[in-house]
């Protein structure tokens, strides 16, 4: 049985631990979690007695096969300096979830020249419900390590390995994208209320409409424009609405938002 050590029991660290422990991966991996305060560890262990919890990061990572750094960006360097003595970089996979810290920087802090076992990963907040889109990057990544990480992060949704240069774009699309989708839902509900629907009902209707849209694209593999064409009859209400949205800058606003987030 291989060992995964997760440093940080916050939203992301906790979601990853729960995702693994609730999946078939629990048969393959021992999950360890460390956190400076005990409350989150106690709650996690009450849910999943198999998890092993620590207050000391060095003890948590000692002998681990995979170390996941689920801490804020400004804490990563200090945590790495704390645990380096307990991590065997010849065989341990180290993954940082911190935004903005390159693999090369992680390698420097870890004191290694070979980056094949060092990665960045970025889940989004849908990890809490097992529906994250997680990106993994590390341009010199060992193929077996990449396969293992894709398997692990698939426990909280879907995972993809991408070149590190694509990381800003992927984060803008899917990490920031959660907020963009929520803003669209909120705007749709506000418009529906103005048209006479009750807010809670409008939200439920919109959520089902979005779920149905995703299901259509998954089932057909079509470009979104194909599905749009199916509901835009000549002179109909849908094309009037779409043209009005475009006149207000809908597509350009989305593109400009993504470009701003990726800077």
Question: How far is it from the N-terminal to the C-terminal residue, by CA?
Answer: 41 Å
The share of residues in extended strands comes to 15-25%
Largest sheet: 8 strands, mixed
Helix and strand pattern: EHEHEHEHEHEEHEHHHHHH
Coarse morphology:
elongated
What's the total number of strands? 8
Low-confidence stretches: none
Proportion of helical residues: 40-55%
Question: How does this model look, in words?
Answer:
The protein has an eight-stranded mixed sheet, sandwiched between helices. The chain is built from twelve helices and eight strands. The protein is an alpha/beta fold and 263 residues long. The protein has helices at 11-21, 38-47, 57-61, 73-83, 103-110, 143-153, 167-175, 177-195, 199-220, 224-231, 237-247, 250-261; strands at residues 2-7, 29-34, 52-54, 66-69, 93-96, 118-122, 132-137, 157-162. Helix 7 (167-175) packs across helix 12 and helix 8 crosses helix 9 (199-220). The two termini are 41 Å apart.
Offer a few descriptive terms:
263 residues; alpha/beta; elongated
Give a short summary of the structure.
With 263 residues, the protein is an alpha/beta fold.
Give the arrangement of secondary structure elements:
Blueprint lengths: L1 E6 L3 H11 L7 E6 L3 H10 L4 E3 L2 H5 L4 E4 L3 H11 L9 E4 L6 H8 L7 E5 L9 E6 L5 H11 L3 E6 L4 H9 L1 H19 L3 H22 L3 H8 L5 H11 L2 H12 L2
Parallel strand pairs: 1-2, 1-4, 2-3, 4-5, 5-6, 7-8
Antiparallel strand pairs: 6-7
Helix pairs in contact: 7-12, 8-9
